[in-house]
Every structure is written in structure tokens, then in C-alpha cells.
Design brief:
eight-stranded mixed sheet; Rossmann fold; alpha/beta; 2 domains; 10 helices
Length: 359
Amino acid sequence: MYLSPRFRAFAAGAALLAASAFAQAQQAPQGLPNVVILATGGTIAGAGASAVNSATYAAAKVGVEKLIAGLPELSKVANVRGEQVFQVASESLTNDNLLTLAKRVSALSKQADVDGIVITHGTDTLEETAYFLTLTVHTSKPIVVVGSMRPGTALSADGALNLYDAVNVAGSKDAAGKGVLVTMNDNIDSGRDVSKNVNIKTSAFSSQWGPLGMVVEGKNYWFRAPVKRHTMNSEFDIDSINALPPVEIAMGYEGVSSIAIDAIAKSGAKALIHGGTGNGSVADRIVPNLQKARADGVIVIRSSRVPDGFVIRNAEQPDDKYDWVVAHDLRPQKARILAMVALTKTNNTKELQRIFWEY
């Protein structure tokens, strides 16, 4: 069959275009997960006066759309969209903010077109928000809370990689069912266990029980799984919580007085977390004040200011006799979160102690 030179050239060009399109299709990621980034502010959205300002800066300055636009690599691992829920430094977040955020996370988790959720957050109270979500959001979809220790304007800023890792984890099927996660400094930590332990290093976040895994170049490596009740296995549900009871913290220290305890007991607080020394120790001179607070209806919960270990019931103090609760391995700030959530269900101390053992 005779084919004109013009037709042969056309056919050759069409074949070349088809081959090129096929090659591009083979290289392009297929079936990307859909990840929503909920932004709340914090250092990850902060800006310093110069590149050398890694510890002196203004938090909560960059909006979520700019965060996403500044990290084009995200488009290779997920279909990402953002929502600006708040724009505040995390030390200023309130109980109402927690409720608003958790209800939004819950609503998104029910959408078929959402595979995972990332929350950008200031590091100061990141662990508290992560634990609150762990307790109250009923979903097996990955929820990842992420922040940074340096603003994006700083030399060696850590926010971009932390956010990239968070989106990777939130879009990963192998992250499902593991509760709320925190991705910082290449680690994947449990939102229940992790705490901020250093205030100026990128390795600020860690847990005494170790990370669940690591993210390396977009791949998850898992080493353990959480055993405490969380998310889908929680008896608490944010969709039925509209207010949180007041819970306050009084710290123990050498020479401690009863001023804080007495003030909290009179404030209308439903529970008082005592952040004691050592094994949640309580100075003998303030034991009567805590007993009176309990007699007046305030739940007394013994926690410890010591970073690692856990409080043993009926050691140091006769908790059964005083009708007190112990916080197990939860630091005072996380004990407060669990107490607020638990008190939406019960004020029975035996039930509250069960909850502190299980969560």
C-alpha cells in the first residue's frame, strides 16, 4: 500500500506523541489520596525578621494556602486542600477552640472524599490537642497533628519536611486505625504518648515509650502500635460533647503552699490535677486542703511533674481512703484533657480511675 510522505510523517508524529503520553502516564502518580489540611496557626505558620531568627519570631502569620503553595512536592503524594480553622499561637487556644476543631475533624472524617486529615498546630500545646482528638474523634482514617520548632523563614526550617511527612502519613493506608499521630523530626508518635520535652530544638517531641515509627523519604516504617483505647474504640464522641467542664492544675514543689489548691477549690472547678513531685507525692501540709476539696465535691487527681514513669495508686498517698484518682503515666496537662472528657460522662471516682487506666 502506498502512503504519502505527508501521511507517514503525520503517523510518525502521532506515534511519538502517544509514546510520550504513555511514558508520562506511567511516571505520574495514580489514585492519589485526598488529604485535608486544617490550619490553626503556630510556629509552622510563623515568620522571623531574618533567616537567623530560629527562636525569635511571630507565630501564626502564614495562611494555609501559602503553606501549601510553598510546598509543591505535596501534589505528588496527595490531592491536598486546606482550611484555616484558627490563626493563633497554640498557648492561646481555648476549650471552645478544641471543640470546634474536633467537630470539624469528625465531620471531615465522615466524608467519602477524604482519606486523611492533617492539623498544623503550634508546638506549645500540640500534645494536648492531639490527645483530645485521640479521645473524641471516632474514625479509623489517619489524623496527623504537625508543627515545627522553627519558622519557615529560618535557616534549616523544619516545618516543610514535617508537613510533607504529615501529608504522606495521613494519606497512607498503613496509618489507618493507629489513632491520632504526630509527625515531627522524622518520627511518627502516638498523640497520646508524645510530649514536647525541649523548647528550642527540632528534636523537641518524644515519648518515654518510644515512637510508633519513622518517615524516611515519604515511606513509613512502623515498629509498634498503641495499646490504649483511642478513636474508634473510645467511649467518648465529640459529636455528643458541646461543653467541657473546668479542670485546673496545681503544681507541687519544695515549700509548696495551699494557695493554688484553695483558690481552685473555690473557683467552681470540677476537678483538680495535682502535679506532684516524684510518684505524684503530696506535701503533708497540703493533704488536708486536698481532702477538703474532695469533700466539697472536687475530684482530686494525682499526677506527677516528672517526665517519665507513672504514678502508682495507693503509694505515697492512700488514694482509696481519700477517694482520689491517679493519672497513671499522663503528665498534668494531659491528665487535665482526659479529666475534662471523662467528666462529660461520669463523676464517679471508680469509673474515673478505670478511664485513666484504659486511656
